[in-house]
Design brief:
With 169 residues, the chain is mainly α. The chain has seven helices and no strands.
Length: 169
């Protein structure tokens, strides 16, 4: 039975497609296509990428993608690196992991709506308090005595002219 890599390469060659043409059609990098056709799965970081690329590549070549992925699962089960899926744990390792895990559980639409409503309420309360304080305070209340204090001999009804000011004709 031919491997997945052999099946993909043989189907591509039958359709007279180059690796660059397949890369253009599937939007998969040429390095990844070469790795898939050579069966070099160790160049991929996770099996999810291999499965996705094989499925996309098989569909582009009009092959049975479900059968190809099934054959791929058999081949990956034989490899040491991809035999078992990586462990999925919900246990955070540190404070940052815990915070990020909790944030990932939030519904962002609801959170943004609540934060926007809270911001509007805060602005309204601040505005109302500002207006109340403005109306209640007298701006002249803290004003001290004027600069001119008339002497006891002057009535204070008119201001005296300064002595060093030039006179106008």
């Amino acid at each position: 039975m031919p491997t997945v890599a052999e099946q993909l390469r043989h189907a591509r060659e039958e359709q007279k497609l180059s690796i660059y043409q397949v890369a253009e059609i599937t939007k998969i990098k040429t390095d990844h296509i070469r790795a898939l056709e050579s069966g070099d799965f160790d160049s991929f970081s996770a099996p999810v990428y291999i499965r996705g690329f094989v499925r996309t590549y098989a569909r582009a070549l009009k092959l049975d993608d479900a059968r190809m992925v099934g054959d791929l699962e058999t081949e990956l089960g034989r490899s040491e690196k991809f035999r078992e899926p990586p462990p999925l744990t919900n246990e955070p390792r540190g404070a940052l992991d815990f915070v990020m895990l909790q944030l990932s559980k939030l519904s962002w639409r609801i959170l943004v709506s609540v934060l926007a409503a809270a911001l509007v309420v805060i602005v309204l309360v601040g505005s109302v308090r500002s207006l109340r304080n403005r109306k209640e305070s007298d701006p002249l209340k803290k004003l001290g005595p004027g600069l001119y204090q008339p002497s006891s001999s002057e009535s204070g009804e008119t201001l005296p002219l300064p002595t060093n000011a030039p006179r106008r004709p």
